[in-house]
Specification:
There is one protein chain. 68% of the residues lie in helices and 0% in strands. By secondary structure, the chain is mostly helical. Among the domains are: 4-129; 132-186, no CATH class; 489-644, Lysozyme, CATH 1.10.530.10. The radius of gyration is 30 Å and the shape is globular. 39% of the residues are buried.
Length: 655
């Protein structure tokens, strides 16, 4: 076996005896590769611009180049109606390792279905395993099956499963649903089921459209439900219908919970008033207590624990089970923490998180021997809870670092894979986003061992984000060189020093925010390695007296790290140099963190576990753990997580 840092050299020395003889050939090969990459980019520019004559000129020069088929997708996509079927099929066969080949296959199937060329459609569709996410193609397939399948009942059952979806489905599904309805399968019950799914997603326009399949009386109930959703205070104040049916009770309790999103205490008051006026069942009380209990726990209301305790919990209601434990943790009701953890399903109880809190509860109830036994088991893990458990025992952290190793033959075999060659050329041609899509798509075809080798290869290319992503996909999670890279080290250390912040913490933030994807733009508009919002970037730019205004300028690594470090310093200052609170604020905003401040001083692990937002809670845990790992990676004396996570001060009394 050959260690990662040596495998390229090892491969090099395998050809050393003939090095002088082949050197000119290697140089020519590199020159040819550079030329092909330029021709690919010219071809891509031409085909996207609709200049097909220029495109064909460069396309012909890409023979035997891995991206020839990749770029030809853009040509064929616009000309499916003009391209012979055999040419498309030839392309699909030759490009089955390409993400663009997969995209063209989807386009081709849609084209065939629209033209009614069902024989070719079914032949290309195959088992459809890789097309399940395309509801349009699924509906085209079901349209064919309605006409040609002998087992009509099975087809109708499949259509029913597609129907039960809380969002709009493509128009291609309308024909299928019409056939399904004419066959008597669209009952009012199944229409209501989809309406309920749509209401959960707040798709009110879809709900209105679905109501056309209901009778006159049912349509009235849909209107009442929508009205309750839009203005629950008004509707509950003047209910103008009998609350004596399941549907009526559902609508009323929906309104109560809607108020609960704004104020759980007001909602519970309203529910108690309504219970005196109308006859509700135990299931209604369960529903309201469950939702208001969860919302109350997220708002840190002491009453929420009693509301949650009153619910008859089912073993599969994980959200309820989890928030009962969290509410008890926040209130430090250690007896109920133990009680509620013991009520978790066995698989959940065995999770590291709940074992840690079980031990914390045991420790607080004077059962220290049992607590320390659990802490000792958890403390062997390289994780947030593992580090916290080690702190309870004052034991050393276990980093479990273990390099992935590969032979030159294994490396060569992965590099020879057509899908990897396509990703490699896209990456080295500067097409980072297409390269990432190709890489991610192709990984699904690879064995666990090949994933490990691919992670090594990406690391050698300097493609840090795909290296750690690929290692995470494998079962080898202990190569910290790959999973926690020291990319941009000089710039990060320099900017952290200028901003007077902890370098390890800055690395932990970057690892969590972008996983080293320097070009990433989030759906919310955050930019780059440190995921800066444009407004924040501009504010920090003014503070530093820099002329960095545009999104593209903020995205640049040099500027992003400079502005990001400055923003970390700003946030840290706002929160009294409490790194944990600053981490939460970096993700959710300082205004929210101040709102989450407890009434009394609180241990850091309890406060973190009680953060209302799932994203922010996991974010803080990850950043704290990653920061600790980066201290190890940077060769520093490791600061205990217990020391890094300072207790959260209580709110100052109002004057």
């Amino acid at each position: 076996m050959i260690k990662r840092k040596r495998f390229i050299l090892a491969a090099f020395f395998l050809v050393l005896p003939g090095l002088l003889a082949v050197a000119p050939v290697v140089e020519a090969s590199v020159a040819d590769k550079d030329k092909q990459r330029r021709n690919y980019l010219y071809a891509l520019e031409a085909v996207r611009g609709g200049n097909y004559e220029r495109y064909k000129k460069y396309y012909r020069q890409l023979k035997d180049y891995p991206l020839q088929g990749y770029v030809h997708y853009y040509y064929l996509k616009k000309r499916l109606d003009k391209t012979p079927a055999r040419e498309v099929q030839k392309y699909l066969q030759a490009n089955r390792h390409s993400y663009n080949g997969y995209l063209l296959r989807r386009d081709w199937l849609k084209y065939l279905a629209r033209r009614g060329r069902w024989k070719a459609f079914i032949q290309e569709y195959g088992d459809g395993e890789d097309l399940k996410k395309s509801r349009k193609i699924t509906c085209y397939y079901l349209k064919y099956k309605i006409r040609h399948s002998e087992n009509k009942a099975a087809v109708m059952e499949q259509i029913g499963k597609v129907w039960l979806y809380g969002k709009r489905l493509p128009p291609a599904c309308d024909t299928v649903f019409n056939s399904w309805r004419r066959a008597g399968h669209m009952t009012s019950d199944i229409v209501w089921q989809r309406i309920e799914l749509a209401m959960k997603r707040r798709r009110l326009s879809l709900v209105r459209d679905l109501s056309k399949y209901l009778g006159v009386k049912d349509k009235v109930w849909v209107k009442r439900w929508i009205a309750m959703h839009k203005n629950p205070v008004k509707e509950l104040a003047g209910i103008r219908y009998a609350v004596d049916s399941q549907r009526a009770r559902n609508i009323v309790r929906h309104g109560v919970v809607r108020i609960g999103y704004r104020d759980p205490e007001v909602a519970m008051e309203k529910w108690l008033q309504l219970k005196k006026k109308y006859n509700f069942f135990g299931e209604d009380d369960n529903y309201v207590n469950r939702w208001l209990g969860i919302l109350g726990a997220q708002n840190h209301l002491p009453e929420s624990l009693d509301w949650l305790s009153a619910v008859s919990a089912s073993a599969d209601d994980k959200r309820l089970l989890i928030w009962r434990v969290k509410a008890a943790i926040y209130l430090q009701d250690w007896g109920r923490v133990k009680q509620f953890i013991s009520a978790l399903p066995v698989v959940m109880r065995q999770e590291e998180k709940w074992r840690y809190w079980q031990a914390r509860a045991l420790e607080q109830t004077k059962e220290k021997r049992e607590a320390h036994q659990i802490f000792a088991e958890i403390a062997t893990n390289r994780s947030y809870y593992g580090f916290l458990a080690a702190d309870r025992l004052k034991s050393e952290y276990n980093m479990q670092h273990d390099n992935i190793e590969a032979t030159p033959e294994e490396v060569s075999a992965v590099l020879a894979m057509p899908g990897i060659q396509i990703a490699q050329e896209l990456y080295h041609s500067g097409q980072i986003v297409p390269a990432r899509r190709q890489w991610n798509w192709y990984l699904r075809r690879m064995s666990n061992r090949d994933l490990q080798v691919a992670a090594l290869i990406a690391q050698q290319w300097g493609w840090y984000d795909r290296a750690l992503y690929t290692a995470n996909k494998s079962d080898h999670l202990d190569d910290l060189d790959i999973r926690f890279p020291l990319a941009y080290r000089e710039q990060i250390v320099s900017n952290a020093r200028k901003a007077n912040i902890d370098t390890n913490w800055m690395y932990g933030i970057i690892r969590q925010e972008s996983a080293f994807m320097k070009d990433v733009r989030s759906s919310a508009g955050a930019l780059g390695l440190m995921q800066l919002m444009p407004r924040t970037g501009r504010e920090e730019s003014r503070r530093l007296k820099l002329n960095v205004r545009s999104r593209s300028e903020i995205l640049k690594v040099k500027n992003n790290l400079l502005l990001g470090a400055s923003h970390l310093r700003t946030v840290l200052g706002r929160h009294g140099d409490n790194q944990m609170l600053a981490t939460a604020a970096y993700n959710a905003g300082s205004h929210r963190v101040k709102h989450w401040q407890p009434e009394k001083k609180m241990a850091a692990d309890i406060w973190t576990e009680s953060i209302p937002f799932n994203e922010t809670r996991n974010y803080v845990k990850n950043v704290m753990a990653f920061t600790t790992i980066y201290m190890y990676r940077l060769g520093k004396n490791i600061m205990r997580l217990q020391s890094r996570m300072q207790a959260v001060e209580g709110k100052k009394p109002k004057k």
